[in-house]
User: Fold these one by one.
Assistant:
Number 1:
Amino acid sequence: MSVEDLLGTQGSRKGILFLLSGPAGSGKSTLLRRALDEDRNLVFSISCTTRSPREGEVDGKDYYFLSDEEFSKRVENNEFLEHAEVHKWQYGTLSNAVIDILNDGKDVIMDIDVQGADQVRDCKDLVISDAVVDIFLTTSNTVELEKRLRGRGSEDEDNFQLRMQTAVDEIKRWRDYTYCILSGDHEEDFKVLSSILATERMRVARMAP
Ligand code: 5GP
């Protein structure tokens, strides 16, 4: 294969599906936003959820906000690549959108809980299973996590306790991921994530047609 052929395959490769999991307070949303702002080849997978929008969240941009009935209908129609209940609400990723983006050669990044990540890893569709790269983001201890979550100030006490309990359970799953980012400051986290993205994009297995 000539160098020209090699460079040609770079342009025609299938997209990578980056799963980003981590407990509430780990800094996932901030990291995702920065990665999406700075990386033109990265597309955010917009999830469906039954929870209500928070202040500033936009339907069709942050989430598709669905009623319980609408969500259940999509489950029945097998439209979800994965779906799970998190903090009493339903969350799910629509298959078609993700597959279309990957086939288009663009990389997708998903904000996904540990249950959803399990389901995506188990997916038998080759477009998905060949594309998956799973990344876990966490603080090195729960004290720091609690501090960050309290600092966010977006939860009432009941919700806070629920999120903290889920977080403690989620952290136990870090070994199931290929990469684990131990969260430092925003800059450090971004550098580590960017280097994982760059490394995965250079894998020869993804270049050859
Ligand atoms: P939040 O309500 O704070 O936006 O998200 C709560 C949790 O739901 C986070 O852990 C987030 O990773 C997870 N989540 C967001 N979208 C999805 C999704 O499409 N599928 C699954 N399984 N979890 C999701």
Number 2:
Amino acid sequence: MNALILVDLQNDFLPGGALAVPEGDAVISVANALMPDFDLVVATQDWHPADHGSFAANHPGHSEYQQIDLNGLPQTLWPVHCVQNTGGALFAPGLNTAGIDRVFPKGMNPEIDSYSGFFDNGKRQSTGMAEWLREQEVETLTVLGLATDYCVKFTVLDALAENFAVNLQLEGCRGVNLQPGDVDAAVEEMRAAGAKILT
Ligand code: VGL
Ligand code: ZN
């Protein structure tokens, strides 16, 4: 079985959103076009409580995009984004959500961030996605979404560590590039870890 993994195709990551990824809207049509080619389509959804520790607003004296230590892990402080039950957390309006078989929310624990769709950043808790994919007898994952240098990267690296074969659909990805070159470095890291890069 082949599964398509759609990473965080949510309003806050699109132009005009709270944590807009440049050209993030360009990947929606890529996602819609690929869905019919897969046995299963899975979406991850960044789904934070308002008091989440990754939000700069919850750390007085700190600013957005600063790095801090959050309960023992390095944490980039982000603008408030993808708060549960707000419009910014909804899937992109153009996304064919009827084609999605299963959604895995992540980032609900205010004490720790969760870039990957599989585990939190400390690999302490599983979302259940790996177990579910194995139950469906999925062996190969094709991953696309936002953002290449954060949630896509960590989802791909965890998928490889969980022994799935992974294709990265680059045309369906856009990144943040907080530092110039971050996206290229992320793609190289995924390739070196065993992902097949599709362009
Ligand atoms: C993401 C930063 C914070 C992502 C999520 O989807 O890549 N990035 N939360
Ligand atoms: Zn987030």
